[in-house]
Amino acid sequence: MIKILFLIFCLLSLNAQDSLTAQKQNTLYVQNLIETEENIAKMFEKYILTEFAIPTLDKLSTNSYLGSNFSTTNKMGTNIAFENTSTLRIKYAITKDEYRAERINGNQNFLVLFYNRELHRNYTSAFDDSTDLAKSYIQISLKSKEAQTLFAILNTGNTIAKECANNLTNTYCNKNKKTIRWYTDSSQWIEYDKIDFNNGNVTISSSGLLSNSKLNDLAVGSYIFVENSTRYVKLTNNADGSLQILKVD
């Protein structure tokens, strides 16, 4: 009888140890998932600032970004992927019932709580819709104002050339670290600050652009500098939406 009890005790101890080991392994796995998502977000921003385009996961899977050996495999749910780059979302990773079972039964699951916490996240945030898991996602947060400006431009379908050239038309281009330009259909240009964009001052290549509709989007009070010439200030748009400016030099 004593031997039988001892055997049962040993089996229970082994099961408890196995369970604890599995918990530790799963916790480390979730930590790696978070790190992977953070890296994707950081490299997403780096790609925009370097390539002036919105990347796919394939384009990030190079030695310059996530590494050519980057893996999208995920044992806890669907493989790692963008849900929608236009909304800066990555697919939520913990979707399999076996890893969410405690939550499904009405209790809070440690793995899910750990995954959703902000403690280890800087470039991402987890949004977990417990009523409809399909609506859960990971949100990428672009940290630099420059990246936010470039993304907003690209996300509306515009392109940004890596370098500015006099033969460009109807496109944005990277002038330098601080500014970008819009080239019109006649290769005239409007130069914006990467951080402030329409909320800041601009420089235009000639006074002929003072009636250009793009200047309608400038914040009231912004200065419009004509290159090597005069300065204007943007006023409230006219009732018909047309530009209203005042010469100040």
Short description:
With 249 residues, the chain is an alpha+beta fold. The chain contains 5 helices and 12 strands.
Q: Would you write up a description of this structure?
A:
The chain has 5 helices and 12 strands. A hairpin with a 4-residue loop joins strand 6 and strand 7. The N terminus is likely disordered. Helix 1 packs across helix 5. The protein is 32% helix and 18% strand. The chain is an alpha+beta fold and 249 residues long. The chain has an 8-stranded mixed beta sheet with strand order 5-6-7-8-9-10-11-12. It has a 4-stranded antiparallel beta sheet with strand order 1-2-4-3. The longest helix has 50 residues. It starts with a helix and ends with a strand.
Write the topology of this structure.
Blueprint: H1 2-51, H2 57-60, E1 82-84, E2 89-91, H3 97-104, H4 110-116, E3 124-127, E4 137-140, H5 145-155, E5 160-161, E6 171-174, E7 179-183, E8 189-193, E9 202-204, E10 223-226, E11 231-234, E12 245-247
Helix pairs in contact: 1-5
